[in-house]
Write a structure and sequence with these properties.
Layout (H helix, E strand, L loop, with lengths): L13 E8 L4 E7 L4 E4 L6 E2 L10 E5 L4 E5 L5 E3 L2 E3 L3 E4 L5 E3 L2 E6 L1 H7 L104 H12 L6 H25 L14 H15 L10 H13 L5 H5 L3 E8 L2 E6 L2 E4 L7 H12 L12 E5 L5 E5 L9 E5 L8 H7 L4 H12 L4 E5 L5 H9 L8 E5 L11 E5 L13 H8 L6 E4 L6 H10 L6 E5 L3 H13 L7 H11 L2 E7 L5 E12 L5 E14 L5 E7 L7 H6 L11
Parallel strand pairs: 3-4, 18-22, 18-23, 19-20, 19-21, 21-22
Antiparallel strand pairs: 1-2, 1-11, 3-5, 5-6, 6-9, 7-8, 7-10, 10-11, 12-13, 12-17, 13-14, 15-16, 16-17, 23-24, 24-25, 25-26
């Protein structure tokens, strides 16, 4: 973030603030600038926004002569222009929309306000609906254009983006005051709320109620777009794009409404929408509707593409359908109806695809969760689910998702990965794969640790495939993702509470129940709570060969994480007893890592050797990935190396016949 110093000395002591709410209410306030301006719903805040969607103290703004510093101090984050701040500070030009809950706040440049209205005091009268900093068209007396200033286009900077053209200076308004020197650099165009000047409409708004951010240097949008996209990954919008988008949304809503009337889709059972016979009916109805509305559809719009997209929204997952079908895409992230990111080759890419509106996103979420017996509404605004192919889905709606309904889909390959494929991808070496396979067959308890999206579940699925087919396996997951090929597999899935708050079954409940199901192996998708204690007890009481995953950045942190999870079980146990349990139960920690280039590798395999004299759990690394650098294309370069340590249970491999005569132990 910027290192500029905010020094309000020799600067105006007041700043004008324009506030908009999502329900259309607007107001202006004049605030002192001698100290940071706190914004929130608490009475102690300098600018109070009365809403449950606003934190007690949401953000803090410091005012400088040519910029404002915005610092987020909230729990949910603050939108500054197109940037989402989370406990961060950023320097922005005046007029940047600051979104706090359901309010959008704009700080107006005091220097411009003073220059434009030198005679206007705090108690000056103004026309209704006209922001304070702009003079009334009836004030007059401002004088003519000063000699030497020339036309507006020759003021040294030209017209700022967002001004929309002056529409001609009105008689009696005069020109700029001497000494203004033209429009101030870094102002990003005329400030929001200046709609009182003839011929100058207010800037258009985003979907979340914020105004379109302009270039800090006052350069045209098209020239500045690539720079902003590169710096912040933000979407660039112009008034023309917004108008075109609104027209397209209105057209799609009209077609969707007519489709509902033609086929009465609203009354159909959700399960019948998957009937193969429905799609031809919907496509036929859409073709008739599009034909009737042909004069209203812009000529550049591809009709067949429009019909296909609307059919997907009516029957499937809308614009996500083509991403689901694309095998090169591993993750889909819907930020809001207008923003969809995809992960391809380990890298996040902003797609051009959009939903019609938030209602269509909600419909897609309902279509995913309803067949699973789960629900999502204002009282339960988040849900975990899965698609038919096993892909993991997480959805969050308002009021938790401030920008609109949010969907995250983690896809899984239609053909499950194997160890040979992982070796081909460079995720591990053949000796590492052989050692892990032998460890699974020898019934060693394995914990796979790693960060979010590092490939823990994928590796868990691959290693589970090495379990002998004659064994009884019980899998326990929040959302069923594992795809085991063995014939004797019992798959259990958690269930949330119903409307009355009853009927919830957690992973811990299912782990306890699985012990009564005579399992040979217990495979838990992820330990993230008190179920870690039950897993350790199962591993220590005859259920060897169990596998699970946990979130951690290294094998050492994985052990500390398991200790913490056991303490979350609610049973007061001495730390030494917990460590003895872990050391006796867990044999291997397999660390999975996602690197900066998007590649995923097994970065460490370590054996838990016991509890040392100092009471800490000791581990010895068996294999490690040593990073040596980065190549010209940004790819991570390194080597997998065996440390030379032989695991303590190597003799089990020999006794079980897993190491044949002449083969290497590792």
């Amino acid at each position: 973030m910027s290192a500029r110093t905010v020094d309000p000395a020799h600067f105006t002591s007041q700043v004008q603030v324009f506030i908009q709410s999502d329900d259309g209410l607007e107001r202006n306030e004049v605030l002192p600038t001698g100290a940071p301006i706190s914004i929130g719903r608490h009475q102690s805040c300098v600018l109070r926004l009365d809403s449950d969607l606003v934190s007690r103290q949401h953000c803090v703004v410091e005012v400088a002569p040519d910029f404002i510093r915005i610092e987020d101090v909230s729990t949910n984050g603050t939108m500054a222009g197109d940037m989402l701040l989370r406990r961060q500070a950023v320097d922005m030009p005046y007029g940047t929309p600051i979104v706090c809950g359901n309010f959008t706040v704009y700080f107006l440049n005091p220097q411009m306000a003073q220059a434009a209205s030198p005679h206007q005091g705090s108690g000056a009268r103004r026309n209704p609906g006209m922001p304070m900093e702009m003079p009334s068209p009836h004030m007059g007396g401002m004088g003519g254009m000063q000699p030497g200033m020339g036309a507006m286009g020759n003021m040294g900077m030209g017209m700022q983006p967002g001004m929309g053209g002056m529409g001609g200076m009105q008689p009696g308004m005069g020109g700029m005051q001497p000494g203004m020197g033209g429009m101030q650099p870094g102002m990003g165009g005329m400030q929001p709320g200046m709609g009182g000047m003839p011929g100058m409409p207010r800037p258009p708004t985003h979907g979340h109620g914020g105004m379109v951010p302009t270039s800090p240097q006052g350069q045209p949008r098209a020239q500045h777009a690539q720079q902003i996209q590169g710096q912040h990954g933000a979407q660039i919008t112009t008034p023309e794009m917004i108008a075109k988008r609104e027209k397209d949304v209105g057209l799609r809503r009209q077609i969707h409404k007519l489709l509902l009337e033609h086929l009465d889709l609203a009354t159909l059972d959700a399960s019948k929408l998957d009937d193969p016979s429905m799609r031809p009916k919907v496509l036929g109805a859409l073709r008739r509707i599009v034909g009737q509305l042909d004069t209203q559809i812009p000529p550049e719009v591809e009709r067949d593409l429009l019909i296909g997209e609307l059919a997907d929204e009516a029957l499937g997952l809308g614009p996500l359908e083509r991403f689901i079908a694309d095998p090169s895409i591993s993750e889909i992230m819907v930020v809001d109806p207008n923003t969809i990111y995809i992960e391809r080759g380990g890298k996040l890419v902003l797609s051009e695809t959009r939903f019609t509106d938030d209602d269509r996103v909600r419909s897609v979420i309902e279509r995913i969760v309803t067949p699973l017996g789960r629900r999502i509404d204002e009282s339960s605004p988040l849900v975990d689910a899965r698609l038919k192919d096993g892909s993991r889905v997480n959805a969050v709606i308002k009021p938790l998702a401030l920008r609109g309904s949010c969907i995250t889909i983690r896809k899984f390959a239609k053909t499950p990965l194997t160890l040979d494929k992982l070796i081909g991808f460079g995720a591990l070496t053949a000796p590492m794969a052989q050692f892990l396979t032998r460890s699974v067959i020898a019934k060693k308890n394995i914990v796979i640790s790693g960060g979010t999206g590092s490939g823990k579940t994928t590796l868990l699925n691959v290693l589970s495939g090495a379990i002998p087919s004659e064994e009884r396996i019980v899998t326990i997951e929040d959302a069923a993702e594992l795809q085991l090929s063995q014939p004797h597999v019992v798959s259990l899935e958690t269930r949330p509470a119903n409307l009355e708050g009853k009927g919830e079954y957690t992973i811990r409940d299912l782990v306890k129940n699985s012990l009564r199901m005579r399992p040979d192996r217990i495979v838990v998708g992820e330990c993230r709570g008190g179920e870690a204690l039950d897993m350790l007890q199962a591993m220590n009481t005859g259920h060897d060969g169990s596998l699970t995953t946990t979130h951690a950045n290294s094998p050492v942190e994985a052990i500390a994480r398991i200790e913490t999870l056991v303490l979350m079980g609610g049973i007061e146990l001495p730390v030494r007893a917990i460590r003895d349990q872990i050391a006796g139960a867990v044999h291997l920690i397999v660390q999975q890592t996602r690197f900066a280039d998007g590649s995923r590798r097994v970065s460490a395999i370590s054996e838990v050797t016991g509890v040392g004299d100092e009471g800490t759990i000791e581990m010895r690394p068996i294999f490690e990935f040593i990073r040596t650098g980065t190549d010209a294309k940004g790819k991570v370069v390194g080597d997998f190396r065996a440390t030379g340590y032989l695991p303590s249970y190597l003799n089990d491999f020999i006794v079980m016949g897993l190491v044949k005569r002449g083969e290497k132990y590792l």
